[in-house]
């Protein structure tokens, strides 16, 4: 089996305040490319769309550009930047640091649910 798709022609694109996510659905993989503009914060841009207090999506990600801070519900915080690979469990807030967009590639299966109204 071989399956190839381009993120330049996503199956779905969701726009939200200060950003968007593009998603391709493949056999055994849901892949997302998220662009978060300066000033983006999950609790300000996505919370009302998701209908949850914190992000409840599991992320397996890779940061292409920009920087982001992630705070877990227990208060633990980490910063991610270009070249960082990360795994983040549901129950977190996140925000862009600095004045450049943060571009994240996400390989988690439920990125297809990200920024979808419930």
From TrEMBL:
Record's signal peptide: none
InterPro entries recorded: Cupin_2, RmlC-like_jellyroll, RmlC_Cupin_sf
Domain Cupin type-2 residues, every copy: 59-106
Protein name in the entry: Cupin domain-containing protein
The species this protein was found in: Actinomadura montaniterrae
Organism placement in taxonomy: Bacteria, Bacillati, Actinomycetota, Actinomycetes, Streptosporangiales
């Amino acid at each position: 089996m071989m399956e190839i798709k381009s993120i330049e022609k996503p199956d779905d694109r969701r726009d939200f305040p200060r950003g968007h996510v593009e998603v391709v659905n493949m056999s055994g993989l849901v892949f997302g490319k998220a662009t978060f503009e300066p000033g983006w914060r999950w609790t300000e841009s996505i919370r009302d769309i998701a209908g949850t207090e914190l992000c409840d999506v599991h992320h397996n990600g890779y940061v292409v550009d920009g920087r982001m801070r992630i705070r877990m519900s227990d208060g633990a915080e980490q910063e991610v930047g270009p070249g960082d690979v990360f795994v983040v469990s549901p129950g977190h807030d996140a925000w862009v640091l600095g004045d450049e967009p943060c571009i994240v590639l996400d390989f988690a299966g439920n990125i297809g649910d990200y920024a979808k109204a419930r």
